[in-house]
Amino acid sequence: MKKRWYFLLIALIISISGFSQTTEVTIGTGTSTNEHSPFNTFVSNNFSQHIYTAAEVGHSGTITRLSYNNTSSYICSRTISVYMAENSKASFSSASDILPLSNFTLVYNGSVTFNGWSQINLTTSFAYQDTANLIIAIVDNTSNYEEQSIEFASSTTTNTSNLYWFNDNETFDVNN
Q1: Which residues is 127 bridged to in the sheet?
Q2: Which of 67, 98, 100, 146 could be disulfide-bonded to 11 (CB atoms 3.0-4.6 Å)?
């Protein structure tokens, strides 16, 4: 468990309700890198949860897209599921302190190629109310590993806002 938030929301695209404009929300500086989250491509199966505070997101609206920054030169495709929820949880207290996915909305399930800035256009948009923290969960059950790990831009935080799990021999059970 690392005290970092992962630059998952580098370009969280939120369409501001009541306006015809789209706002791109960037969280963090991206001055660090991490190969474990949002997933580790050097193992077969991964799970992670990320907490972004309402103050960090700063807008209510409909989330339609996420972007990750693969800072390595290695390009890969992964089959992932992305879940979102709003919750008052501000940090994780232990490695088992995950929120059950039954409280989340599945917003994307499919393949994504990660090459530099990589967008995930959500298949189900998420109505973020800005009344609680945004929690994003990523499940990668690609069931094969890559030749090497890729690294994602990240930022260091003072609280534990990210948890991750990975295993070559079993898939993450989204029901537990």
Answers
A1: 62
A2: 67
Structurally, the chain folds into a number of domains equal to: 1
Quick one: which of 23, 39, 20, 8 has its CA closest to 128? 23
- Beta bridge partner(s), residue 145: none
CATH code at 161? 2.60.120
Determine what percent of the chain falls in helix, strand and coil, rounding each to the nearest 5. 5, 50, 45
Measure the N-to-C terminal CA separation of the chain; round to a whole number of Å: 19
- Taking only the tens place, the pLDDT of each residue in 106-159 is 999 999 887 878 888 899 999 988 889 999 998 887 777 666 677 776 666 677
3-class SS at 134? strand
Identify whether 173 is part of a domain: no
**Domain housing 94:** 4-167
